[in-house]
């Protein structure tokens, strides 16, 4: 992963991805306008990588924030790296481009920088984002992911997106795409849950061997959305080892958690709707963790997932049953 001047990594298609991204997901009870206000703050303090998704329901708000900061002269469009995601109900090849175009319409942008398959867990195609049967069970579907990938490649060829990648894929699922006959573009990234209790070291090493960037979400722990997260799960930012190291450096536990993954070679997504913390989470380039502290933090790994996706564990493509 070659670094560039603006704290970026160069991906396998030659495009650059900023090393720190601003995450915009929020549980449903949060008003959508919070994402707009927080994105404006993020751009003002220096974030140039904005991560969102159609299923978050706030692309119009995030797009509005980006356009406002362009209009204000804070950034140009080419300075902003926007990631969007193909939702699980749009994986049949004929729905891929319309889904991307719907995001572009919501964002009011001409192209997006990175478009990734949100999960390999396809559901019944259509506009119902969580299709259920009469027993309240999700209705799964089973398009060959390689056909979905070809439709993603066509979106890149059409200039609607600059780079294409995947998210929540395990090694086998990435290899399926890499070994596809007639592959035109490799995935540039795999975006996965990544924090001190799930450091994804094996997946990171595999992705690195294939020149694929690992992008980490929930690096600061999770939003603890009751719909997805066990409320008794450990709190990353309260970990005593992390807290002790943070005190040594006169930094916050969040800054140390972010710095740890940057030094491992992971692109980090940090999420907060608090202006002070948005700014603080970006201030991680002025210190270095020595090897012994990196080892201490690496030893905290428990392969513990916040996003266990139990509603999907019977899906034939459930990715988290494999070791990595």
Automatic annotation (TrEMBL):
One Gene Ontology molecular-function label: oxidoreductase activity
Site positions (Lowers pKa of active site Tyr): 85
PROSITE patterns linked to this entry: ALDOKETO_REDUCTASE_1, ALDOKETO_REDUCTASE_2, ALDOKETO_REDUCTASE_3
Keyword check for Acetylation: yes
Binding residues for substrate: 118
UniProt-annotated catalytic positions: 56 (proton donor)
NADP-dependent oxidoreductase domain span: 20-301
Gene3D superfamilies: NADP-dependent oxidoreductase domain
SUPFAM superfamilies to which the protein is assigned, alphabetical: NAD(P)-linked oxidoreductase
UniProtKB keywords: Acetylation, Eye lens protein
Family per record: Belongs to the aldo/keto reductase family.
Protein's UniProt name: Rho crystallin
């Amino acid at each position: 992963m070659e670094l560039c001047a603006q704290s970026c990594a160069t991906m396998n298609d030659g495009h650059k991805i900023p090393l720190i991204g601003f995450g915009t997901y929020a549980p449903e009870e949060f008003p959508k306008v919070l994402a707009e206000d927080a994105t404006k703050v993020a751009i003002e303090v220096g974030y140039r990588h904005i991560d969102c998704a159609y299923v978050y329901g706030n692309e119009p708000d995030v797009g509005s924030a980006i356009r406002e900061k362009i209009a204000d002269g804070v950034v140009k469009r080419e300075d902003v790296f926007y990631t969007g995601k193909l939702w699980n109900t749009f994986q049949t090849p004929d729905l891929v481009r319309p889904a991307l175009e719907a995001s572009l319409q919501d964002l009011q942008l001409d192209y997006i920088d990175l478009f990734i398959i949100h999960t390999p867990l396809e559901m019944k195609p259509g506009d119902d984002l969580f299709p259920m049967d009469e027993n309240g069970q999700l209705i799964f579907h089973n398009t060959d992911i390689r056909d979905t990938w070809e439709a993603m490649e066509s979106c890149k060829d059409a200039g609607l997106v600059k780079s294409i990648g995947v998210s929540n894929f395990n090694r086998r699922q990435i290899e399926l795409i890499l070994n596809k006959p007639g592959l035109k573009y490799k995935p540039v990234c795999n975006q996965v849950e990544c924090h001190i209790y799930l450091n994804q070291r094996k997946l990171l090493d595999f992705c690195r061997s294939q020149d694929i960037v690992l992008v980490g979400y929930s690096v600061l722990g999770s939003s603890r959305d009751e719909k997805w997260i066990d409320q008794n799960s450990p709190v990353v930012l309260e970990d005593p080892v992390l807290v002790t190291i943070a005190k040594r450096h006169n930094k916050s536990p969040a800054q140390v958690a972010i710095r740890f993954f940057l030094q491992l070679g992971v692109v980090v997504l940090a999420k907060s709707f608090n202006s002070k913390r948005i700014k603080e989470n970006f201030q991680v380039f002025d210190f270095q963790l020595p090897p012994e502290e990196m080892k201490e933090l690496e030893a905290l790994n428990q392969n513990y997932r916040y996003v266990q996706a139990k509603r999907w564990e019977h899906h034939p493509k459930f990715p988290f049953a494999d070791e990595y």
